[in-house]
Design goal:
Helices cover 50% and strands 6% of the residues. It is built from 13 helices and nine strands. Strands 1-2-3-4-5-6-7-8-9 form a nine-stranded mixed sheet. Strand 5, helix 4 and strand 6 form a beta-alpha-beta unit. Keywords: GTPase activation, Leucine-rich repeat, Repeat.
Length: 417
């Protein structure tokens, strides 16, 4: 079959092309040139051997396409879609091992595979994930995931890059301590950069859903998207219609279970559709507040905190000059830099128009950043180098990226308490 290149020319689109095993991988590799940054090979049959062969070849291509001696920058893939390819833990580990080395790779989709997170593999998997630059990971519809393995992965998950984790339709239940692991992760600083968690279509139950929502409300201010739809517990499934044992009505349904399901429906409706949206909207507002406050305070903070007060000699010279030119010198003029240090810092903090958006640690970091002349010089050099030769539209996009990078580097991009 012919290779399909999308119009923006950075995508090789090869779903359902009959690529099987190592031979299939070897047929894919020649299509990946230096201008390709996205690869969709979903719905093939690469399996473990084919996936490992593919990513071994990609490692070679990454070195070949990255040629500093020819004036070429680093090359890498930004997105890989390996959905429905019969991947197992070994293949998944191989993908993440590649991602540790390819700093470009941000999005990995391995939905609909046979990943189990077996105990003998999960440590290596999570270590590679923590060391990668992946921002979005989809494990949707991997129905064979081991609850113990997922608990282990979440317990060790400490990625500073991961923003989106998709675990919908993975047949997850509240057993094996999974809810506790999710709650502990969401309440810890390890999840600080996570913005989206999808758990739709599992079996976490009303109690599990409630505990997760409780945790977001009390301990997490960074999640802005949380999927918890269709999470009825396994214990509330309908019994077979031909089961006429005691305790069942004429339709073959356990009356007590019907009551339990009705109550759980009410709980899920309240938690998912009424309570959760308000909490997520709160997090969006708080995120916007701290970002705006930090950006607005930066310039006046740099000016004031780097200003040098006039010496007595300079003050005297100014008075003499004013007198000699018949100008009255107002000795009562406001001299900001002569105020106590803590008052100056309070004034600078209020230039943000939202001084209480900062946690104390965030404000301390901002003050140190703004008062460093070396940081100011480096920031100026970076802006000049990044804007050089850019068109107006490109300049606006570059400035936006620089602001986002600065906010993230100083951790002023997320609400803290």
């Amino acid at each position: 079959m012919a290779v399909i290149l999308r119009s923006n020319t950075d995508l090789v689109y090869l779903p359902d092309h009959g690529f099987v095993g190592e031979e299939g991988a070897l047929r894919i590799l020649p299509q990946i040139t230096r201008h390709i940054h996205r690869l969709d090979i979903s719905h093939n049959l690469l399996g473990s051997s084919g996936t490992l062969t593919l990513f071994k070849g990609l490692s070679t291509l990454r070195l070949r396409h990255s040629s500093p001696e020819l004036g070429l920058g680093m090359w890498g893939l930004k997105e890989v879609n390996l959905g429905n390819n019969n991947l197992d833990d070994i293949a998944f580990d191989g993908v993440l091992a590649y991602a540790k080395k390819d700093v470009w790779l941000k999005r990995v989709l391995v939905h609909g595979n046979e990943i189990t997170l077996d105990e003998k593999n999960v440590n290596s998997i999570v270590n590679s994930l923590n060391g990668s630059h992946i921002t979005s990971l989809s494990l949707v519809n991997n129905t064979s995931i081991s609850p113990k393995g997922l608990v282990r992965l979440i317990g060790l998950l400490d990625s500073t890059e991961l923003k989106q984790l998709l675990l919908s339709a993975c047949n997850l239940s509240s057993e094996e301590g999974l809810i506790e692991a999710i709650v502990d992760y969401l309440a810890s600083n390890r999840s600080r950069n996570l913005e989206s968690l999808e758990l739709n279509g599992n079996h976490l139950g009303g109690i599990g859903v409630t505990r997760i929502v409780d945790c977001i409300e009390s301990s997490n201010w960074t999640i802005t998207t949380l999927g918890l739809l269709a999470n009825h517990s396994l214990s509330d499934q309908l019994v077979p219609i031909d089961d006429n044992s005691n305790g069942h009505d004429g339709n073959g349904v356990n009356g007590d279970n019907m009551v339990d399901r009705a109550e759980e429906n009410k709980v899920m409706e309240y938690q998912v559709h009424r309570r959760l949206p308000e909490i997520l909207n709160r997090n969006r507002i708080l995120t916007k507040r701290i970002r705006l406050a930090a950006l607005k305070a930066l310039v006046p903070a740099r000016i004031i905190l780097n200003a040098m007060p006039l010496t007595d000699e300079q003050t005297a010279r100014r008075v003499i000059d004013d007198i000699s030119q018949d100008r009255s010198y107002n000795m009562a003029r406001f001299r900001l830099l002569e105020l106590p240090e803590e008052v100056i810092q309070l004034i600078v903090r209020h230039t943000s128009d939202d001084p209480w958006a900062f946690s104390e640690s965030q404000w301390t970091r901002l003050r140190k950043e703004a008062s460093s002349r070396d940081n100011l010089r480096k920031a100026s050099e970076l802006v000049n180098s990044r804007l050089r030769g850019k068109l107006p539209d490109e300049r606006r996009e570059t400035v936006r990226d620089l602001k986002n990078d600065w906010l993230r580097k100083g951790r002023w991009d997320k609400w803290e308490r």
